[in-house]
Amino acid sequence: MKLFSLISGGKDSIYSILCARRLGHEVVLLGHMIPKDSNTHELDSYMFQTIGHNAIKSISECLEIPLIERTISGFPSSTQSLTYTPDSLDEVEDLYSLVEEALKVNDGIEGVLTGAICSRYQLERVKNVCSRHRLESVSPLWERNQSELLADMIKDKMEAIIIKTCSLGLNESHLGKTISELYEEFIKMKDKFGFNVCGEGGEYESLVLDCTMYKKRIVIEEHEKIYHSKDPYAPTILYVPKKWRLESKE
User: Fold this and answer.
1) 1-136: which CATH number, 3.40.50.10420, 3.40.50.1370, 3.40.50.620, 3.40.190.10?
2) What is the mean pLDDT of the chain?
3) What is the pTM of this model?
4) Which of its termini does the chain have fewer beta carbons within 10 Å around, N or C?
């Protein structure tokens, strides 16, 4: 099946491409939602990761898959139910428009690929958009055991760094570290207080700098750390890439 892949730059959306390929699918186009203001790195969205948005075009280049982007103009207005009814004010309609644009770029697209793991809220909204466009919704990571899934990502040589923390047990020292470096600590936090190892509770966000699918690797040369929220127990801290280069892997 030819797929349009929704990517955030994080480990889940990128790993879903690898899994989809193993299932025999072909990812022909990437899609990404961006904030109106390019200087905004953290948006109050129930659907989209915005931290790391400035590196998405480089990820497209590394994957050698074309990319389309669309601005997030809506907001989470229909959040009371897991099911979704089209609402012109909701950010989901921006996703609908992105998929509509994707079909104009490549009318051979048969499905939409996501890295959803356990967010029923997000999955149902993607399915709603797909059904309205008569496309399949493909989520190969859905309901995977998070500890096993993260271990598989590491085994498959995915170099993903933490670019946002928002959880008890996480602080500034975790930013910029890889999932491989933090795996054992994440497992201990899961056993201690129910930490979601893959960050499905919003504990953290990531950015994939390298993986087996990349033709080049991303090397961050400069970054900025921003305290978005100074909660004493679970501060929201951002790691914003400011300058990077693409390094050949040959």
Assistant:
1) 3.40.50.620
2) 96
3) 0.96
4) C
